[in-house]
From TrEMBL:
GO terms for cellular component: plasma membrane. Belongs to the cation diffusion facilitator (CDF) transporter (TC 2.A.4) family. SLC30A subfamily. The keyword Ion transport applies. It comes from the Bacteria. It is a multi-pass membrane protein. Keywords: Ion transport, Membrane, Transmembrane, Transmembrane helix, Transport. Its main location: membrane. This is Cation transporter.
Length: 302
């Protein structure tokens, strides 16, 4: 039920972020037209991509709620991961384009209405801060929202850089200030994109989540009374907040009663849930060691 409530909150926050981002897009595009600011035009294009990514994230989050099917037995959790990867790839491309555009502006500065530039960039900055605060609490539970959050951070930094550039242009009439700030902003956006790309690739490769200590999990399972050995242990995740585990455990041969066996399995699953936040653990008890083939247990006849 708690997981379900998280999904509902994530979806509502993404919907609100999308609507507010559309407001930012309309504001900046209108401001670009009347101020003739190429910086605002460029940022409008950036925000349009962000609005598209938020729409994709919103759609993906709504798909997560769908029940598993005979074909998709784990449901659609990975849809959010794929969307986060796409969002971050777009963000990386945006940062490269921003560096290139900033370089061109440095060589060929253009005259702009600095007062209107400051006004519309300020409105955009304030709305982006509101969006960022709204979705920040969910970034550690949902990679899709984390990716969208970095989009918002990128928007905020760019809006702030346009404000600073507008003030400097107003005071000095030197129009290349926005280009200089843009060259500093782009790498910051790229770092955020690389962070999410790395995390999504690890999930798609079914690597052990970085917050989980594989050896520690093994040790804790062995501490459960009645467990003699842990092997064929696998830990992976479907999404940022949905961690899974499967393992074979060799049970003490003194354990004869099926009720005691069930108790051991329940104790393992409870410990994994409380200590490591592993939501779904499949434990296969064994009375004799299974045959091993390159680290994996294989079926054999007893």
């Amino acid at each position: 039920m708690d997981e379900h409530n998280h999904h509902i909150r994530h979806e509502k926050n993404l919907k609100l972020a999308f609507i507010l981002t559309l407001c930012v897009l309309a504001t900046e595009f209108f401001g670009a037209i009347i101020s003739k600011s190429m910086a605002l035009y460029a940022d409008s294009g950036h925000i349009f991509v962000d609005a598209s990514s938020l729409l994709l994230a919103w759609i993906a989050q709504s798909q997560i709620k769908k029940e598993p099917t005979a074909k998709n037995t784990y449901g659609f959790h990975r849809l959010g991961i794929l969307t986060a990867l796409l969002n971050s790839a777009l963000l990386l491309i945006i940062s490269i384009v921003l560096m290139y555009e900033s370089y061109l502006r440095l060589i060929h500065p253009e005259i702009v209405n600095s007062k209107l530039m400051i006004l519309f960039a300020s409105i955009s900055f304030i709305i982006n801060i509101i969006i960022g605060f709204k979705i920040y609490k969910d970034i550690h539970q949902n990679l899709n929202i984390k990716s969208s959050f970095f989009h918002i951070i990128g928007d905020s930094i760019i809006s702030f850089s346009i404000i600073v550039a507008g003030i400097l242009i107003y005071l000095t009439r030197l129009y290349y200030f926005d280009a200089i700030i843009g060259l500093f902003v782009a790498p910051i956006i790229a770092i955020g994109a690389f962070s999410v790309i790395n995390e999504t690739i690890n999930i798609l490769l079914e690597a052990v989540p970085k917050e989980i200590d594989y050896i520690k999990v093994q040790e804790k399972i062995l501490e459960i009374e009645g467990v003699k050995n842990v092997h064929d242990l696998h830990i992976w995740s479907l999404s940022k907040s949905f961690i899974l585990l499967s393992s074979h455990v060799l049970i003490d041969d003194k354990i004869k009663d099926s009720a005691d066996l069930c108790c051991i399995i329940n104790n393992i699953q409870y410990m994994l849930s409380k200590k490591f936040k592993i939501n779904h653990a499949v434990i296969q008890p064994e009375l004799t060691m299974c045959k091993n083939d390159n680290g994996y247990c294989v079926a054999h006849q007893i």
